[in-house]
Each structure stands twice: as structure tokens, then as C-alpha cells.
Amino acid sequence: MKKTNLFVTICALMVSSIINFAHAQETPNQEWNQFRGVNRSGSADNVQLTSFNEKTPKLIWKKKLGDGFSELTIAGGNIYTMISERQDSITGNEFIAAFDAKTGDEIWRTKVDKMFFDTFGDGPRSTPAIGENNIYSLSSYGKLTANSKKDGKTLWQIDFMKEYGSKIPRWGFSSSPVLVGKNVIVEVGGTDSRAFMAFDKETGKEVWKKGEGMATYNSPVVTKINEEECIIFANGRKVYSLTTAGDTLWTYNSPVSNPTGMPIVFDGNKIFISAVRNPAFIVLEVNDNKAKEISRGTSMKNDYSSSLHHNGYVYGFHVAALQCISVETGEKKWTKRGFGKGSLIRLGDQLMVLSDKGKLIQVKATPEAYTELGSIQAIEGKSWTAPSFANGKIYLRNLTEMACYELK
Predict the structure, then answer these.
(1) CA–CA separation, 169 vs 251, rounded Å?
(2) How far apart are CA 277 and CA 254, in angstroms?
């Protein structure tokens, strides 16, 4: 009898472990808690979607939103993003704000800086990072702020221009912070070897500093290369690989100048980097903490948005053309115009492409041919912010409003 009970207990534990493991595997698709999603790759796996031509996505809500380009981050049933509100034609404020993901209704907003104005679009550029209890954002004028997720209370703030001599980029501070362990890590662009810095998440206290370089429009990616965790920064004409403790693993003098597209790490030790000027892209291979260029080409010039890698191919916007290229040879597999300078994410084996005028297009993530599965006019106006995905819903933003659609 005791043996039977022991056997039953073991079986129950095994089943529970399998269920918990499956849940853990699904978790990355349930939140979009930082720039470009959980892994900063612009992708979510284990997602199966019906063709738009078979079932049109259902609009759940659409809400007015203050100006800005920050992605919509989703965690714990809430949306967190940066917005702005003008007081008149030349003044206004930037905020970090929380919204109910089910309804789009505002929960709270907290001022973090004055408003950035520009002919291409006003308001914040950076996407916040969501921690367990707090949210971390970077304003257009370089103020890194920690706020409580619960009520928006400001916990600490650091002014990069005042404290570190950083200079505001032409189109505002745009790099999106990343959370690693107890630290928030971000491109600062400060003087005296303070291009990149880590700050304690709870106190804002400086933890480490590294590198020379002005603030640019690229965001760091935390990854593993040859099984070693590292942080990759692409700044100006240099690529940095740092440990999470801020030590330099390697640097590489790159022919690619000022990339805006995030570096893409694939195959365990390769990095794809793209920018709008020639050479359009390079691929680096890293071994024994030494990087070398293994290919370059002109077939993918990322301008406003980042590309993504899937099964040996890179999908992205070659300036204003949606394109698929071989990551090994740079060979163009297919191209499709008509979407302007759009953006995209991958959900399972499908691409969700957002045109710069708010059209959402479903495309197969295959190099064989451009295969469209349907489209909807999801949102109106200038749409330069990439979609976000969580719990079966896609969240979209243009310059002044946001919308949520249910995908099946």
C-alpha cells in the first residue's frame, strides 16, 4: 500500500512538473516586457495563428494616446509606455504611463521630463523596461527614471546631460534600457569612459561604466555567445561585447556607421548588424572572444526599424521595402514594396508587418516567396512603432493613439 501511494505521488509530481515546464515554455509569449519583447528579438515562439483571410482580427479597443514612439510593453495585465502632452506649440511634458490591457483605460501617469519636439514627430523615443516591481524609462532629454509599477511613484532619476556630460542626439535620446540581475543597463553617451553604464535598480546608484562614444539610436542586447552571457552594444563605428559586470570581452571596429537596427545574435556566435548607409550590413563571427567579419552586403539597409532572424534568414525593412535575405550570403530571396518605412515582429511562423500608415499585414515567415495571408487597416496615421504581442493579442501604436486586436 505504501509503495502504491509512493508511485501515485511520484506520478503526480511528474505530471505537475510537465505542466509547469509547459507553462514556463509558454511564458515568453504572455508578456512583452521590454523593447522588442522578452528576448529583445522581436519574436515570440509557440504561437499558432489563423490566417487573416479566414478570420479577421477583432478590434478590442482603440484609445487616444499622447505623442511618442515608445513601444507598448505589457506585463501583469497592464500596458506601460511613454507618452507626451503638449501645453502649447512649443512646450509640454513627457510621462511614463500605465494602462489596463483589457480596456486601454489609463491607470496612472507620472511626469519624467519636458517634451521633445521635432518635425518628424514629437515625444519620447525610448521603450521602458519592466521589472518585478518597478519600471525604468529614458526620456528624450536623457533622464533615466525608476517608477513604481503600482502607482507610478518616482523612486529615483538620473539626468545624463547634467551628471555625465552627455549630449542630446539630433533626434533625442532613443536607446532602450535593459534589466540584468540587480542592474539597469543603458547607453549613456557620457564623458570619461561613460558611454555605457549600469545602475542599481533599487537605488539608481552607479554600478559600473565603460566605453567611449556619444549617445546614438541603438539599444543593447543581452545574449549568450559561445555559452557566455554578454551585453552587445553597437555604437558609432564600434561594436562592444561586455560582461554583465561591465568588463570588456572584445571590441570590433565596424564599417557600419551608426546602426539604428538592434544587433541580431544567431547560431550561438554570430551577429548581424545593419544600417542605412553602405556597407548595409555585416555578419560577425565570435570565437575565443575575438570577432571577425565573415560577410557583408547591401541587400538589407535598416533605417527606422530592426530586422529579425528566423531559420537562417533575415526579415526586415530595406529602407522602404519589406525584404527577406539569406543571412549567410546576403542573397535577396524576395522583396515587397508598398508599406513605406514600416516595422515587423514574428509570431510563430508568421510575420506581423505594420506599414508606416497603420496597415497590419500577415505574411508567412518563409524565404520561398512573399506570401500574404491577409491584412487590415488597423490604425490610422504615422505608424513608426513596432507591434507588441501578449496573451493572444497584438498591440499597435501610431504617433497619437494605440489599439488592441485579438488574434486567433
Answers:
(1) 23
(2) 13
The burial class, CB within 10 Å (0-12 / 13-18 / 19+), for 21 is exposed
Question: For residue 339, which amino acid is it?
Answer: F
Asked if 239 contacts 231 with a C-beta cutoff of 8 angstroms, the reply is: no
Q: What is the DSSP letter of 11?
A: H
Amino acid at 185: I
Q: For the segment 99-141, what is each residue's pLDDT rounded down to a tens digit?
A: 999 999 999 999 999 999 999 999 999 999 999 999 999 999 9
**Torsion angles phi and psi, residue 164, rounded to 5:** -125, 5
**pLDDT tens profile 150-180:** 999 999 999 999 999 999 999 999 999 999 9
C-alpha cell at 169: 542626439
Q: Reply yes or no: is the peptide bond before residue 28 cis, omega within 30 of 0.
A: no
What 3-state class would DSSP assign to 3? helix
**Do 83 and 61 meet the contact criterion of CB atoms below 8 Å apart?**
no
Place of cell 536607446: 175
The position carrying cell 491584412 is 375
DSSP state, residue 132: S
d(CA 135, CA 109) in angstroms, rounded, equals 12
Is residue 160 within a helix (H) or strand (E), and if so which, with residue range?
helix 160-164
d(CA 248, CA 200): 20
Residue whose C-alpha is closest to residue 274's, from 217, 350, 228: 217
DSSP state of 32: B
Looking at domain 31-406, does it have CATH number 3.30.200.20? no
